[in-house]
């Protein structure tokens, strides 16, 4: 084992299969809740893992009859790289929903990106910015009634997960969904519009049965829920207290090396949000480095606290753009029962999962309560609507080298552009499909590391790609 865990670490990123163009060309892109743009075709010659990059697919605009190049160039800067791209309008298919005239980027230069990005986050400049994100287009073209989706990554050992646009699967979580208001941009750590919510506490339930409290304070820490980040990042004081639950941990660069947890062990890292405690197994909270050692799935960052995949694998999360709320519960799997999400302040129902709750052993002593009362955070009621799922595959790869660890990748807005749909080519059909009553479910397949060549959602270290 080398001195640096960065070059050896094997983690996970989650990619969604989409079809771009007419006829559709299959491309796998990172599903990122902290980016707003869709772009494809990273430069594989400059990628940190060229082989992985090539496996994810390539869009050839010359083979599409509906491609319309705007000629507008744009650059996105990340903390660990960049992408230069040209904007175009094109047909994009997600599950059975075929979007017309979707604005997206076609990269002509990037480094060291291995994959394009499906941005499922809002524009950093505001919830109602006119930029036509995929989430906006799904609603505008009638495929969804509202801008909301649920995300279920599942355990790192699981082969299947899903994202459901305008739907909730009560067979994939336990307990009641806890509603948390999204922190307004002006009150958030970076003053940008992102999925920031308040975390109330963290404890570690160790394998030997002891309890270590990292922090316990109502609305004590703002955190960003980001599927584009493999690791979680927390301020130094919280990380230092959390490490007391892992006395064998040794710093190795930005990460902490620990012994690998025993499969099926009872240890958990517990995250408190209001009345919900999301319990992350030690297996999901660590990443294997080699045959005998692992690294904790958390690093120190005092400026951009992020709960990435090492947290999200244990949570069922509903991202409600329109009402500025996050709903979350413990992920589980006891079948499938889809419930549709409608439109308006009562669109997201107050649901309880069908799965049996496990005993909560973590303890939090904070007794004060908080009623934040942000604008557009409203009480929700239940809905009896049903949903019709449409399935599509995700992709999983493993043994990914060249990972960039220890840096936070946040999108930098380098220019403002006015987007005019009137420039779309005349050969693009303009009829609007009528799928208002259906939710769109896209399946994530997370294959074990023994199947690295499968084209289904993926393990590589992805720093936060907002």
From TrEMBL:
Q: Which family does it belong to?
A: Belongs to the peptidase A1 family.
**This protein's record includes keyword Hydrolase:** yes
Query: One of this protein's GO BP terms?
Result: proteolysis
Keywords attached to this entry: Aspartyl protease, Disulfide bond, Hydrolase, Protease
Q: Give the active-site positions.
A: 32, 226
> Would the keyword DNA repair be found if you checked this record's keyword annotation?
no
Q: Which PROSITE patterns match?
A: ASP_PROTEASE, PEPTIDASE_A1
A molecular function annotated in GO for this UniProt entry is: aspartic-type endopeptidase activity
- Disulfide bond positions: 260-294
Q: What is this protein called?
A: Peptidase A1 domain-containing protein
**InterPro entries, from UniProt?**
Aspartic_peptidase_A1 (IPR001461), Aspartic_peptidase_AS (IPR001969), PEPTIDASE_A1 (IPR033121), Peptidase_aspartic_dom_sf (IPR021109)
Domain Peptidase A1, first and last residues per copy: 14-329
């Amino acid at each position: 084992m080398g001195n640096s865990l960065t070059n050896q670490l094997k983690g996970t990123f989650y990619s969604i299969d989409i079809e771009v163009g007419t006829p559709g060309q299959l491309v796998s892109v990172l599903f990122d809740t902290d980016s707003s743009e869709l772009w494809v075709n990273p430069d594989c010659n400059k990628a940190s893992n060229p082989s992985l990059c090539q496996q994810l697919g390539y869009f050839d605009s010359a083979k599409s009859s509906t491609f319309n190049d705007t000629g507008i160039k744009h650059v996105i800067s990340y903390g660990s790289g960049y992408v230069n791209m040209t904007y175009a309008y094109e047909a994009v298919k997600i599950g059975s929903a075929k979007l017309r005239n979707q604005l997206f980027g076609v990269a002509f230069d990037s480094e060291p990106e291995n994959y394009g990005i499906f941005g499922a986050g809002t524009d950093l400049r505001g919830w109602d910015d006119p930029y036509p994100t995929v989430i906006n287009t799904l609603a505008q073209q009638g495929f969804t009634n509202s801008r909301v989706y649920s995300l279920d990554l599942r355990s790192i050992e699981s082969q299947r997960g899903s994202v459901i646009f305008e739907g909730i699967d009560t067979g994939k979580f336990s307990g009641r969904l806890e509603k948390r208001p999204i922190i307004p941009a002006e009150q958030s750590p970076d003053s940008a519009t992102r999925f920031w919510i308040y975390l109330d506490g963290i404890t570690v339930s160790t394998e030997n049965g002891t309890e270590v409290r990292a922090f316990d304070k109502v609305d004590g820490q703002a955190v960003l829920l980001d599927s584009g980040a493999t690791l979680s990042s927390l301020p130094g004081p919280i990380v230092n207290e959390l490490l007391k639950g892992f006395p064998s941990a040794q710093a190795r660069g930005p990460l902490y090396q620990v012994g690998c947890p025993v499969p099926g062990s009872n240890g958990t890292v517990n995250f408190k949000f209001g009345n919900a405690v999301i319990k992350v197994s030690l297996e999901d909270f660590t990443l294997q480095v080699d045959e005998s050692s692992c690294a904790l799935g958390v690093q120190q960052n005092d400026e951009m606290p992020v709960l990435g995949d090492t947290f999200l694998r244990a949570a069922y999360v509903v991202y409600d753009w329109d009402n500025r709320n996050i709903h979350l519960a413990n992920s589980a799997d006891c079948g499938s029962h889809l419930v549709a999400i409608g439109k308006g302040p009562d669109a997201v129902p107050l649901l309880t999962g069908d799965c049996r709750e496990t005993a909560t052993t973590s303890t939090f002593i904070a007794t004060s309560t908080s009623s934040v009362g942000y604008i557009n955070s409203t009480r929700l009621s239940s809905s009896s609507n049903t949903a019709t799922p449409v399935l599509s595959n995700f992709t999983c790869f493993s043994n990914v080298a060249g990972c960039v660890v220890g840096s936070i990748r946040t999108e930098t807005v380098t220019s403002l552009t006015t987007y005019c749909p009137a420039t779309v080519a005349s050969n693009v059909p303009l009829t609007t499909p009528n799928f208002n009553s259906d939710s769109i479910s896209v399946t994530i397949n997370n294959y074990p590391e023994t199947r690295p060549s499968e084209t289904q959602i993926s393990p590589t270290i992805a720093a936060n790609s907002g």
